[in-house]
């Protein structure tokens, strides 16, 4: 397959790093019979523009000649391989790695995996950039040798799965609250909006000042329900444009964006989380009223201490917002919960009844929401 993106770049001599070996270790450095070389065949778009809609598609097939040793046919020396990715011209400073396994000779990276590596390497989303990729081979037992091969170059425009909030509510940084793409061009996440005048913000597609900043084209007045739930709807501006977003402060909001062409909607819904279920009362009545949790602005978690007396078949619980089922979390599948919350997921089983359970929700890592129930 013709490779439109990769160009062999001479690095001069192969880099070899020797580590000290104990006397009783196998010294393999003198037994190496070849040096690995890296090749790539690209299935990326001809214009190099990566999109989340193609994240699961094959992007680049990497293949390499394995590191070999002058040993007997029955001796297998484990060698681990990884790709090292860095901005072009950086001499692989601040590089990131992609694991390729042990004693492998080929791997196919998806568009999403390539995109993640380019973002971690420091390329700016939505801007064409160049990176270099090289193979690293390491003798796995005692790490007596690490080898870096020829480098290949890539020119691509990565996309961002995160949109970071900044403005009066806080400066742009790696610690900024963000929403994350959950399906192509749709974003979800939770942010705390302080009281006025620190209740305005915009979005940036990177956590540094190099990103594209976007606000709203229009924003409807807030509406407040009889249960004190604030909802604000709006229309997002085109990338790189738009006005500040102002929300009633002192609240946590679920932010939902749909940036698909012709949609471009913004929605903010204030949330107060609670735990609900038969485990909270030891009978079915526990499903009709949530035990409210409190948002801790220091830990940035929802927290509460509760008695959970549920036993037998009355040992299940979930989390829901605003004492309502419109927004709720479970943990699927119930047969093998992984500690990551799922919207409208399965009921969670209480391990044992007890008093003084400390319950917390961590909704800072959009799409990777966590919970803890312990005592």
UniProtKB/TrEMBL annotation:
Matches recorded under PROSITE patterns: PROKAR_LIPOPROTEIN
Keyword Signal: yes
InterPro entries tied to this protein: SusE
UniProt feature coiled coil, ranges: none
Residues spanning the signal sequence: 1-19
Pfam families xrefs: SusE
Domain SusE outer membrane protein: 23-135
UniProtKB keywords: Signal
Gene3D superfamilies membership: 2.60.40.3620
Tree of life domain: Bacteria
Protein name: SusE outer membrane protein domain-containing protein
Originating organism: Hymenobacter edaphi
